């Protein structure tokens, strides 16, 4: 499978410079992120790796516009992020994020309800998004009838249908069993290939970070700083038993102090 990096004119570049985040608290507050610099080229797949509680989710929430940085800048498509906006799609770890009272079709269509699209145009976009993630046969199903992996695919379709330029993923497969997680990683790569969207995925799995990313940013323990940036110059699909893969894994583990 060839990576689509560089072939998606609708994808957006991400730039982060000197980013910092302090949460209020006694004694001056809690510094979660300290002076983070990183970038994501338009159409690139970047993974952010770090130990639990290091500030990865805080970083993603700032990119999504859910939280404000207390220092530095974060830009998507050259525009500074001041809040959620069209073109920034987020997929969370929670596989129960879908509305249980709506069908899969209506869950995916939800983000289009306040647009000027006709019902026929909305339905066409939903069908295309479900086909991209491989759920076209489950359009009429209810969320409780889907497996955990399928619910995450529906969440991804809900982002894709709005033609997001950036897909931000907060440990989306952490709650899945090992086999389903591996299958979902493969599906995500196919979705990326089909759409060319810029992807940022945070994880605490070294294998997942290297298996998916063009590049891997490794963060320190809190407060999060960039400890290393790994370029993963390996063709897709990747073999976790490959010697080059394991050389990168060894570097990542040493950087994390493991």
From TrEMBL:
Pfam families: ABC_tran
InterPro entries: AAA+_ATPase, ABC_transporter-like_ATP-bd, ABC_transporter-like_CS, ABC_transporter_ATP-bind, P-loop_NTPase
Domain ABC transporter: 14-246
Keyword Translocase: no
Entry-linked SUPFAM superfamilies: P-loop containing nucleoside triphosphate hydrolases (SSF52540)
GO molecular function list: ATP binding
CDD domains given in the database record: ABC_NrtD_SsuB_transporters (cd03293)
Keywords, in A-Z order: ATP-binding, Nucleotide-binding, Transport
Domain of life (superkingdom): Bacteria
Entry-linked PROSITE patterns: ABC_TRANSPORTER_1 (PS00211), ABC_TRANSPORTER_2 (PS50893)
Family: Belongs to the ABC transporter superfamily.
The protein, known as: NitT/TauT family transport system ATP-binding protein
Species of the source: Pseudochelatococcus lubricantis
């Amino acid at each position: 499978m060839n990576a689509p990096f560089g072939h998606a004119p609708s994808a957006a570049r991400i730039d982060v410079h000197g980013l910092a985040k302090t949460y209020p608290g006694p004694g001056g507050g809690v510094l979660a992120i300290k002076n983070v610099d990183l970038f994501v080229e338009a159409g690139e797949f970047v993974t952010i790796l770090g130990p639990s509680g290091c500030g990865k989710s805080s970083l993603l929430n700032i990119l999504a516009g859910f939280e404000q940085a207390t220092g530095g800048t974060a830009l998507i498509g050259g525009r500074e992020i001041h809040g959620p906006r069209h073109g920034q799609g987020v997929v969370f770890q929670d596989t129960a994020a879908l509305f249980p009272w709506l069908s899969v079709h209506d869950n995916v269509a939800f983000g289009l309800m306040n647009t000027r699209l006709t019902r026929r145009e909305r339905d066409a976009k939903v069908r295309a998004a479900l086909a991209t993630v491989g759920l076209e046969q489950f359009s009429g199903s209810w969320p409780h009838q889907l497996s955990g992996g399928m619910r995450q695919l529906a969440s991804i379709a809900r982002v894709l249908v709005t033609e997001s330029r950036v897909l931000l993923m907060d440990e989306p497969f952490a709650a899945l069993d090992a086999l389903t997680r591996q299958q979902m990683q493969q599906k995500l790569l196919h979705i990326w290939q089909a759409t060319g969207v810029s992807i940022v995925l945070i994880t605490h799995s070294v294998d997942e970070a290297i298996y998916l990313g063009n590049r891997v940013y490794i963060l320190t323990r809190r407060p999060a700083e960039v400890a290393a940036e790994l370029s993963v110059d390996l063709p897709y699909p990747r073999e976790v038993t490959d010697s080059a893969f394991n050389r990168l894994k060894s570097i990542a583990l040493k950087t994390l102090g493991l």
